[in-house]
Amino acid sequence: MTSTLIWIAVALLAIGVYLSWTAGRLDRLHARIDAARAALDAQLLRRASVAQELATAGVLDPAASIVLYEAAHAARQADEEAREVAESELSQALRAVFGDASQVDAVRQAPGGNETADELAAAVRRVPMARRFHNDAVRAARALRRHRTVRWLRLAGHAPFPLAFEMDDEPPAALADR
Question: Which is more confident, 93 or 1?
């Protein structure tokens, strides 16, 4: 009788440790998603800011400046529901304006343009990486939240279901090569 109670206690302890470990892992994944989302937001804001600064610098032709400024402004001002679309439109505007290497060369020849072009090139390269880190964290959390144990025992608590950030983040060829 005593050994049976000990085995039951050991089994309950093992189950408790497993559930605690799973809940902790899920909590860490949610924290990782929050950190990755903050990094993604920072990179998107940096890309939009540099694009907006470049559009108002007077080094691009007027049509390209207007297209780039409007897309960057829309991306900076977009609310959460429209953010993915606005950021995709900024990516498309960047590809339209900097699809030709001559535009990048024109920016580099302007005073202070070399640093601005390098900053924009770095920003358009970092956005896909930040989005990939965010979406990988979302994918891992979703996989864990699909387990029956997590669903049945509600180990995720009241945390919202994580959503991936889907956008067109292909950089312009002229900036990606730098």
Answer: 93
Task: Give the dihedral of Cα atoms 70, 35, 172, 85; nearest 10 deg.
Answer: -40
Give the number of other Cβ atoms within 10 Å of residue 24's Cβ. 11
Cα separation of the two ends of the chain: 74
Residue 159: Cβ within 10 Å count: 14
- Report DSSP letters for 36-52, one per residue: HHHHHHHHHHHHHHHHH
Predicted TM-score (pTM) of this structure: 0.86
Cα–Cα distance list, 33 to 47, 74, 80, 140, 149 (Å) = 21, 25, 16, 10, 21
What is the chain's length? 178
Q: Which tokens belong to 37?
A: 């989302």
Average pLDDT over residues 30-45: 95
Q: What is the pLDDT of residues 55-79, one digit of tens each?
A: 888 888 888 899 999 999 999 999 9
Helix (H, G, I), strand (E, B) or coil at 147: coil
